[in-house]
Known about the structure:
Largest sheet: 8 strands, antiparallel
Structural class: alpha+beta
Radius of gyration: 27 Å
Helix content: 10-25%
Distance between the termini: 22 Å
Number of helices: 3
Order of helices and strands: HEEEEEEEHEEEEEEEEEEEEH
Strand content: 25-35%
Strand order of the largest sheet: 9-16-12-13-14-11-10-15
Number of strands: 19
Amino acid sequence: MLSQKATLKTIVANSTDGASESTFSTFKASAAVGEVIAVESDGTAIASGSNKIMIVAKNDSGKIVISEPIKVSDIKHVSAKAYVAPTEQIDYVGFNGTTGSIEVINSNLYQVNIEMANYGSTGSELRYHKQGHFNSAASATELSIAEGLRDSLIRNFSREPEKRIKFEMVCNNAGLALGTGVDNVVFTNGSKIISATDIDNATTNAALAVGDLLRVGTAVTDPVYRITAIDSVANTATLDQAFQGDTTTIADTALERIAAASLAAADYGIKLTGQPKLFKLGKIRYEKMVFVTQLVDCGDTIVTKSQAAKLGIGEGKAVAEEEWFTIGNYG
C-alpha cells in the first residue's frame, strides 16, 4: 500500500516584503507586523541554487509564522494577487442613477419578483422567491408607485430570519442644501424619527418642510425619504418609512432636500442592495447574496443590474476559511 501526505498551511501577510531582513534571525528581531520573506530551510539568506526554502511572516499578533520546508523543485507555479474588496449586488428598478423611470399606469397592479440563489436550492426551479406588489390609484404618480413598491418589499422581507436585501427609494432631482444650522442629523435603523440640532433651520438655505424629500447623502443614488411631520420644539422629523440604513449621525452638509414642489416632475427608482449573509466559521460558509429581479405588469419600467456580488480577494472571512481548512489538515 502506498500513502501520500500533503501538508497545507495558510500564512497571512500584507504586500510589504522584509526590506531590511534577509535571514530568519534578523527578521525575528526587527520585522514589522505583516512583513513576509523567504529564507533557506536553515534560516539563512536565500542563495542561488537553493534546494529548500521557508516562508516566514509576522502576523497581527506579532508572532512569527513559518511554513514547512518547501522543495524548490516541487514548486510548479507561483502567483500573487492584490487585495480586491468584496462587493454586494445592487439592482435598480426604474431610475438607476443615470437614466430610467417607473412608468405610471393608473389602476394597475405592479409586481416585483425576487428570485434568490442559495438557501438550500439545488436548481433554478427550487430557488427561493419573494414578491412586492402595489395597486396604483386611478390618478397615480410615479412617487406613489415607487413608495408603494418599496414599502411592500420591505414588509415582505421583514418576515425573513435575516436581512437579505435592503430596499430604498432614489430620485433623479439634484437636490438642494439644508439650512446651515441643522447641524448633525441622527438616523436610527428601523425608526421613522430623526433628530437634529435645529431640524427646520433656514439659515442660508430654505428649511426642511413637510412634503419634502430628504436625501441621505448627496448623490442621486443615495436614498430619499419623504418628510411627513416636523416637531420644531423637539427638533425631530418623521419619515414616511423607517430608516433602512445603519444607525448613523450625518452632518447637514452631507444631506440634501428635494422641495415638495419639485416632486411631480422627478423620476424615481427602487435600489435593491444585497446584505451580508450570515457567516459562521466552520459551519456556514462565506457567500454573497445573489438574486434576480423581475418585473410583472410594470409597463416599460426596466431593471438595471448595476453591481454584481463578488467575494473579493483577501477578504477576512475568506482568509479565515482558508486558515480553518489548513489547520484541519494538520489534524
